[in-house]
From TrEMBL, chain A:
Keyword field: ATP-binding, Nucleotide-binding, Transferase, Ubl conjugation pathway
Source organism of this protein record: Vanderwaltozyma polyspora (strain ATCC 22028 / DSM 70294 / BCRC 21397 / CBS 2163 / NBRC 10782 / NRRL Y-8283 / UCD 57-17)
GO function terms (MF aspect): ATP binding; ubiquitin conjugating enzyme activity
Classification of source organism: Eukaryota, Fungi, Dikarya, Ascomycota, Saccharomycotina
List of catalytic residues: C87
Protein name per UniProt: E2 ubiquitin-conjugating enzyme
Statement: the UniProt record of this protein carries the keyword ATP-binding: yes
UniProtKB/TrEMBL annotation, chain B:
Name of protein: RING-type domain-containing protein
Bias kind Basic and acidic residues: ranges: 105-120, 247-263, 373-386
One GO process term, biological-process aspect: DNA damage tolerance
GO molecular function: single-stranded DNA binding; ubiquitin protein ligase activity; zinc ion binding
PROSITE patterns in the record: ZF_RING_1, ZF_RING_2
Biased composition (Acidic residues): 232-246, 296-315, 329-358
Signal sequence range: none
């Protein structure tokens, strides 16, 4: 493996020494570009009290290219599909090298707090969300209960 | 202890009178401002974007060149970057000063180690900072060399500010955004499919395509992109265009001349009206660019008049030829020498005509006949692809045969007439 850029080392150090509240990110032992991430569901959201597992990978071009992030835990959200892929502008066209792992994870946490059914990735979820928001929120809560319980 | 220069401003006084803790905190902030938000390292060569944000030269360069189909934007504020960032010498000096000070202090402490024994507890730190300063200076050297090399080779930012275009709206024109390289119309939403690239000339557009109404003057774009000398994607160079214009002018004059001569030519034979009256009737307002057509139509109609009389073919052919000699005289003045020969040639033809044209297998004469027939049918060239349309085939003709050359010229002329005719349609 090619030597790790200074920036990645610095970011990793800071993620450990000064973690973002409600978010953990630990590099994999075998591959320092691969991170195991957990994000707590934001308060007053359908995902409250849930802990979601994600994987994050820093491509070779990082930070010129956005990190690749995916939900591993099942989640009922209009902008996250069955495979856990996330529809978020900063992960695609609006990526900027001034962003970091921590800011990206914060953006994902913010996305949980404010689902956007008008720019959907999971069409069926988005339709439900627009048709009957309260029942969709109930379902999201159920799924959080079912799949996103913190490991003991 | 601290002497405050009276010349210094209020801020100097205020900062210098702070506690050591506050000063350290402040110094930390100052040091942070020398860090690049892309690589999180010191900006040895800080480049300032027009919006005011600073990055390492190499970081900014790789960001601009990382995605060839994106507009250029500031990583921190996403402001559009249309002009090349400039070296921020103030920030560069600040970093160098900070480094020099810490290096001096390290040296002093080293020298005074024997005298000042209380430095012993910091010995490890001194060693560490010394090593760090070495890597610091070698990194700085490396970064500066890279920048200076690119600057010398006019390769700053991978030439992205030289090789990209801008979306420009000329309010005086039509208010539509156009590529500053090829003037192709740019759709404000075009980047959603193919990226921020001109769909016509494939040049990267470095600004966002503005919606109509957003005004960016033409001079702005020129200021940002004087580098595009000519229109490299255009079909013609400037010299070629000039040449074409001159050609057009020459043919225009020539055709006018030939109309006048046709007029006098026909007056004797066809009597009433003359050709010019016929032209005026058909095309009451002669427009520029249609003169070729006039000429074409003129010949056609004059031929139509004689069409019923097949025996006149030879005679008509010679008459046609004479006209074309006159025409060529105007078209290419350097033909003067040939034209003298042509007159002799014509007399020869006259003799041949007397011998009886129909049986004559003289090559030259047949050429003339063919020519005559072709002129009877305005669609001749459309339906007979005999290769004369190509300029190359004309050149390949044997140049030593005078009549053929005449025909060649005549045909070339005809082709142009035909071309203009088609264009009009």
């Amino acid at each position: 493996m090619s030597s790790l850029p200074k920036r990645i080392i610095k970011e990793t150090e800071r993620l450990v020494s000064d973690p973002v509240p409600g978010i953990t990110a630990e590099p994999h032992d075998d591959n320092l570009r691969y991170f195991e991430v957990t994000i707590e569901g934001p308060q007053q959201s359908p995902y409250e009290n849930g802990v979601f597992d994600l994987e994050l990978f820093l491509p070779d071009d990082y930070p010129m290219e956005a990190p690749k992030v995916r939900f591993l835990t099942k989640i009922y959200h209009p902008n996250i599909d069955r495979l856990g892929r996330i529809c978020l502008d900063v992960l695609k066209t609006n990526w900027s090298p001034a962003l970091q792992i921590r800011t990206v994870l914060l953006s994902i946490q913010a996305l949980l707090a404010s689902p956007n059914p008008n720019d959907p990735l999971a069409n069926d979820v988005a339709e439900d969300w627009i048709k009957d928001e309260s029942s969709a929120i109930d379902k999201a809560k159920q799924w959080t209960q079912l799949y996103a319980q913190p490991k003991k | 202890m601290i002497t405050i220069d009276k010349m210094n401003g209020l801020l100097h006084v205020s900062v210098l009178s702070q506690s050591k803790k506050t000063k350290n905190k402040l110094l930390g902030k100052v040091l942070d401002s020398t860090l690049c938000s892309i690589c999180h390292d010191y900006m040895y060569v800080p480049m300032m974007v027009a919006c005011g944000h600073n990055y390492c030269y190499s970081c900014l360069s790789s960001w601009f060149t990382s995605n060839e189909t994106q507009e250029l934007s500031c990583p921190q504020c996403r402001a559009n970057v249309t002009t090349a960032p400039a070296l921020n010498t103030t920030l560069q000096q600040l970093l160098e000063t900070l480094a020099e000070v810490s290096l001096d202090d390290t040296k002093k402490e080293k020298e005074g180690e024997d005298v000042n024994k209380d430095g012993s507890e910091n010995n490890d730190d001194d060693e560490k900072s010394k090593i760090d300063m070495n890597t610091f200076y070698s990194s700085m050297e490396e970064s500066k060399n890279e920048y200076n090399m690119d600057k010398r080779n006019e390769n700053l930012f991978g030439k992205v500010f030289i090789n990209s275009a801008m979306a420009v709206i000329d309010e005086d024109d039509d208010g539509i955004a156009r590529c500053s390289n090829c003037h192709w119309e740019l759709d404000p939403d075009f980047d959603e499919t193919d990226g921020n690239v001109c769909p016509h000339c494939s040049t990267r557009i470095r600004n966002r395509v503005p919606e109509s109404g957003y005004s960016r003057t033409t001079s702005d774009a020129i200021g940002g992109g004087q580098r595009r000398g000519g229109f490299d994607s255009d079909e013609y160079s400037e010299g070629e265009l000039e040449e074409l214009e001159q050609d057009l002018q020459r043919y225009h004059e020539a055709s006018e001349q030939s109309i006048r001569e046709l007029d006098t030519d026909n007056e004797g034979e066809e009597g009433s009206g003359g050709m010019s009256a016929e032209f005026d009737r058909r095309f009451p307002i002669p427009r520029q660019g249609r003169n070729f057509l006039h000429d074409d139509e003129a010949e056609e109609s004059s031929n139509n008049g004689d069409d019923d009389d097949d025996d006149d073919d030879g005679d008509e052919a010679i008459r046609q030829r004479r006209r074309h000699i006159d025409m060529n005289q105007e078209v290419e003045s350097d033909l003067d020498s040939f034209i003298a020969d042509d007159d002799d040639e014509e007399q020869e033809l006259d003799v041949e005509e007397l011998d009886g044209l129909s049986d004559n297998d003289s090559k030259r004469n047949r050429m003339v006949l063919q020519e005559s027939e072709s002129e009877r049918d305005s669609d001749y060239y459309e339906h007979n692809d005999d290769g004369y349309v190509s300029g190359d085939s004309l050149v390949d003709d044997q140049p030593d045969q005078e009549p053929q050359q005449q025909n060649k010229r005549q045909r070339r002329y005809k082709v142009i007439l035909q071309g203009s005719d088609e264009d009009e349609d």
